[in-house]
Specification:
The complex is a heterodimer. By secondary structure, chain A is mainly β. In chain A, 8% of the residues lie in helices and 67% in strands. Chain A is built from one helix and nine strands, in the order αβββββββββ. Chain A is elongated. The termini of chain A are far apart. Chain B is α/β, with parallel strands linked by helices. Chain B has an eight-stranded antiparallel beta barrel with strand order 1-2-3-4-5-6-7-8. Chain B has an eight-stranded parallel beta barrel with strand order 9-10-16-17-18-19-20-21, surrounded by four helices. In chain B, strands 12-14 form a two-stranded antiparallel sheet. The longest helix of chain B is centred in the N-terminal third of the chain and has 17 residues. The chains are: A mainly beta, B alpha/beta. At the A-B interface, helix 1, strand 4, strand 5, strand 6 and strand 7 of A face helix 1, strand 12, strand 14 and helix 5 of B.
Chain lengths: 200, 415
Amino acid sequence: MMTTVRAAILAVATYLLMPVQSHAANDSTAKQYRVIVAASGILTGSRVERSTLPDQSDYTNNLLGGALRLTWRPEHLVGIGIEATVLPISTMSVIQDSRLPSGTTMSLSAVPLMAVVTMEKWGVEVSAGVGTYIYTSQARLAAQKITSSDIESGWMLGAGYVYPLSRAFAVHTDVRLYSIPYRGVSVATAGLGIRWQAWY
Amino acid sequence: MMRHTILIASLCLSVLSLSCGTELQVIVPDVESLQYLDGTTPVPIGQRRLLEGIFQIDDASQRFGTTVVLKHDGETLSMFSARNVSYMVLQSGIKDSTIRFAGYWRFAQGSETGLCILEISPDDGARDILNGQRPKSLTLRGFTGGPSERPRIPVTMKYQRAIKARTGGFWIIAHRGGGRNSDRLPYSENSLELIRYASKLGANGVEIDIKLTKDRVPILYHDATFNTRLVDGEYLVGDIANYTYPQILALGTLKNGEKIPTLEESLKTIVERTLLSYVWLDVKDVTAMDTIIALQRKYLAYAASKGRQLEIAFGLPDETLYNRFRERSDYSNIPSICELGVEQTRTVNATVYAPRWTLGTQPDIVKDMQKEKRRCFVWTLDQPEFIVKYMQEGDFDGILTNYPTLVAYYQYVQP
């Protein structure tokens, strides 16, 4: 896993450091920079290392979330931005356990707040980000709800395709890998969304 | 602009790269695979102490040094050495009038470990030991090796003299029940299993950390929050006080798979299943004080009823706990360990004055405290050079450490 991640880092770093041709060539208006707002719905699939579960439970790690990204892109390939994602990781409902009442449901989610670096050419966009994850576990039983949170750091890698609909709007689809190494949590997402951009 | 972008990207990628980590584990070698003790009978309990002493190693001294201590905890024989902070834990059995040992060795401050087998032949002392007599000469011969190979490197340990115990007793107190998770011991810190193992590491006392759950159950846990340093449990996140004990049990385990124990279970285990003589309660939650003191009293009485020589002391690590402790009308009758100043120690009539090791050996203060019938424990002493210094120059009655094997070595090897 670590070797794969390091290879990916090396590949991204190499590409980023390559000489860059002006991206403004694609933009006949030759503006200075673009601001891009992208919103998407995501489907998640998670993996949690060394999880402990009740005796019998109904466990789900494919859930729906959403992502919002704001990017500033000057006249070249690389843009920088910030991103917030609602990243459901798993839910679990207790069927039978000697310690927890049946019907107790647990959910685990994270809200990564990240600084991202993106790169786009020929409609293909790759991105990487690091930042803080607000990591939350929630227990529910009848009317009782317990929420417990912690702050973790983590990273994200993504790749996607942008299909322009007009000068300002585009649809985009992407896959991303979010990781919270300290928690041993990895979440893969597939997203579909809309993108709006303005030139300045 | 491009330069800035590359700089930011490089920074992000550096952070990303650093976040990739590998958890280093030290697996205890599979001693059973040696089958060396198959068909043996146990060494009689009364004769196990005859195996103890200071021994000289002629070969394998690169690994274990030339002088080692052998000490029996009633279950297993342990070897302690200063070289590489090494130790062995050996099971034993008798076959054909020969005492056999099989176990593992480990460098406590490194990851090196391996298997070892030893034996005492009838002529090397086994005959006398099995007759209940101290042998005129005693030699253990055998082999050590790597973690997954049959031991082949010869090792010979020759008895030199008896181990020396400090007059009035000396407390080797293992931090967090035996050591930290980062010390890669066979069991997790603050687990029942590690507490039971502590004496094999040379400890005769343990320090344990106590937090309170939402349903006010005192549990053994060190940190303020659930984290992957200490627990495996997907849904255990954030403050311990957010969860009830049944929830904690159902949703997580300690790092090596053990259950997170309650203080009550731990004290019961110490009384019933160990020979430990000291328990240092490191209280991490001021609201848990009254509950913990009630358990302290209950298990002091229980230990006394079992004829066990056991002290359980309530730790006073900070002013908040100290002030709350003083609000109790009976504080001067509660055995306590004061980590604050000398005056606070006297005010609460603490049984132990426990300064941080960075305050030095404090010879005059230690002498004054001992005159007042208080003991002095220093914490948390881990660096070998300082353990030597404090053992040789200091006059403390006990040391709290993550490396009890090393303190045990210097304690017993003294002339």
